């Protein structure tokens, strides 16, 4: 049950933080997204893919390598997802900046996940 709660917390954090970063990027550069659906759909796809990466890659590669994978995946998704709903093509430099900010935020959640996983494993051993 604790692992499920941790997974849901991870997903919610990813979704909210990604939406906030994309919203700030939109405020700075008004041509990125068309209304709330653009933010939500892009953030939802990034959160789902990020959660899958965290569940599959994080236990094996550790925090640093997983953050590198997250950065690449986030960059590609931020750049490509708006095309799926006929949004404007986002230039690559702002995409890299957004991805870097999201990756820094994810570093915090990765530390939380690793620490909590260790505590849950220790509690289950007892």
Question: Which value, in Å, is the CA radius of gyration?
Answer: 15 Å
Count of DSSP strands: 0
Biggest sheet, in brief? Answer: none
Number of helices: 4
Please tell me the overall pLDDT. 83
Q: Please report the distance between the alpha carbons of the first and last residues.
A: 16 Å
Helix proportion of residues, in percent? over 70%
Total domain units: 1
DSSP strand content: under 5%
Unreliable stretches: none
Structural class: mainly alpha
Shape category: elongated
Order of helices and strands: HHHH
How does this structure look, described?
With about 130 residues, the protein is mainly α. It has one domain (about 1-115). The protein contains four helices and no strands. The longest helix is centred in the last third of the chain and has 34 residues, at about 90-125. This is YndM family protein. It holds the Pfam family DUF2512. InterPro entries: DUF2512.
Notable characteristics:
126 residues, mainly alpha, 4 helices, 87% helix
Secondary structure: elements and pairs:
Elements: H1 2-28, H2 35-56, H3 58-84, H4 92-125
Helix pairs in contact: 1-2, 1-4, 2-3, 3-4
């Amino acid at each position: 049950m604790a692992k499920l709660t941790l997974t849901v917390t991870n997903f919610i954090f990813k979704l909210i933080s990604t939406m906030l970063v994309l919203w700030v990027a939109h405020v700075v550069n008004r041509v990125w997204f068309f209304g709330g659906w653009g933010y939500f759909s892009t953030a939802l796809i990034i959160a789902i893919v990020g959660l899958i990466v965290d569940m599959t890659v994080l236990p094996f590669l550790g925090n640093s390598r997983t953050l590198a994978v997250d950065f690449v995946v986030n960059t590609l998704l931020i750049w490509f997802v708006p095309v799926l709903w006929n949004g404007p093509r986002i230039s690559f430099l702002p995409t890299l900046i957004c991805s870097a900010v999201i990756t820094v935020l994810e570093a915090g959640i990765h530390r939380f996940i690793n620490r909590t996983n260790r505590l849950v494993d220790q509690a289950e051993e007892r």
